[in-house]
Amino acid sequence: MPKLRGEAFWRETLRSAHYVVAPMVDQSELAWRLLSRRHGAQLCYTPMLHAQVFLRDANYRRENLYGEACPEDRPLIVQFCANDPEVFVQAALLAQDYCDAIDLNLGCPQMIAKRGHYGAFLQEEWDLLQRMILLANEKLSVPITCKIRVFPEIDKTVKYAQMLEKAGCQLLTVHGRTKEQKGPLAGVASWEHIQAVRKAVSIPVFANGNIQCLSDVEECIRKTGVHGVMSAEGNLHNPALFEGRNPLVWEMAEEYLEIVQKYPCPLSYVRAHLFKLWHHTLQVYQQLREELAKVKTLEGIVDVNRELKLRCQEEIANQKEGEKPKEGLPFFHWICQPYIRPGPKERCKENGASGTEKGVRGKRALEEEEDGNSELLSKNKQKKKLRNPNKSFDPSLKPKYAKCDQCGNPKGNKCVFNMCRGCCKKRAFKETADCPGHGLLFKTKYEKSLSWQSSQRVIQTREISRRGDVDVGETAVLKEAGDS
């Protein structure tokens, strides 16, 4: 049967899916996908999988895709991050029998993607992307799709999308933010970019960004003309988003925990989901927040969830008539609802000078330096600051290191080649040389090896000589006995 393409692929294989759950690292696992499908999701993606690890590690394949068969979990698209055409295609070949399409991640903006050279940090390397998609389109039995972020310029974004379509991409998901828009700087996604891409390509397009409720989905489809809408954070805070409902948090949490009992996943995934679902309630019950963070078993998480439910039910029973939600929320905190990520200024106001104003702890607290300058410190840096109040995180005050002649990393101070350890090791091995500064003794070990081999030859020669003397002596004795 020939491989379906474009509109036919979306209509027949993906069943004209409009409501899509995004690929989310450690968050769109099987149990969560099944919960989302029960409440309106029509298409799901796996979490982003690392193509090279998927190719070499059988356990990684089993844990992320080759687990227990689940017919309910279709249609399904497997997403990979990769930067090598051959590795990407070989990994995709191992996955294609377990899904309906393979997606290439070109949208991840995180630092790990920058270090690994994948995701949104490939968006300037059009030749490489063309080769990856062309090869995948040729070798795979399922369609290839892509998820991208936009450029600041609409024209460049359109050309980017057209290049991917020409290379063989059969469906394009466009996240309407640039790779710089993340965390507190996320801001609003540009539907104008998405609309321009939709008009410029003939393949199906999904939109991603600014989706917090079903009315956002409908408005996005109306304004951009896309085939479907993908949700990530909106779905995590309300798995019933695509149903247009705002259920009680404990209903969703209990249903999810029941699915996890049947389709287990790492405890860290489960804990992270409950932190999202109970986000607003955990701002009220800080002690239970700490308990959820420390619990070590699934049964313990179930107990914390039950206690949160009882606290909320007690609060509902004591509620006064006409009472309205606090903290500016659209619903009471025990109802599934969006979490609007504050920008840098809003976060500063929300956290106050110490980050503990009104008993609500923000994700990042604002610290005041002795000189009056303020900076946004992570929790780890805050802990270091508590241990050492004089510690400074000003980059300009960090010591400057001499760079490796080969790669630019800091070199070893006592390296004989003026290199970092990695480059020094390669050169010392190639030249059979020593570098005492890095503890690399290839020359010394080689010379010791030669010396040992030489000594072994001497010992063997002596042993052979000794055996020869014994044989001559024995021959003389036997001859003398014969003469007598």
Automatic annotation (TrEMBL):
One of its GO terms (molecular function) is flavin adenine dinucleotide binding. Gene3D superfamilies: Aldolase class I. InterPro entries: Aldolase_TIM (IPR013785), DUS-like_FMN-bd (IPR035587), tRNA_hU_synthase_CS (IPR018517). It catalyses: 5,6-dihydrouridine(17) in tRNA + NADP(+) = uridine(17) in tRNA + NADPH + H(+); 5,6-dihydrouridine(17) in tRNA + NAD(+) = uridine(17) in tRNA + NADH + H(+); 5,6-dihydrouridine(16) in tRNA + NADP(+) = uridine(16) in tRNA + NADPH + H(+); 5,6-dihydrouridine(16) in tRNA + NAD(+) = uridine(16) in tRNA + NADH + H(+). Keywords: Cytoplasm, Flavoprotein, FMN, NAD, NADP, Nucleus, Oxidoreductase, tRNA processing. The keyword NADP applies. GO terms for cellular component: cytoplasm; nucleus. Residues 347-394 are annotated as: Disordered. Its main location: cytoplasm. Its EC number is 1.3.1.88. Residues 21-310 form the DUS-like FMN-binding domain. Its cofactor is FMN. It holds the Pfam family Dus. It is found in: Cytoplasm; Nucleus. Belongs to the Dus family. Dus1 subfamily. Catalyzes the synthesis of dihydrouridine, a modified base found in the D-loop of most tRNAs. Specifically modifies U16 and U17 in cytoplasmic tRNAs. Affects the level of some mature tRNA and thereby the total cellular translation. This is tRNA-dihydrouridine(16/17) synthase [NAD(P)(+)]-like. The gene is Dus1l.
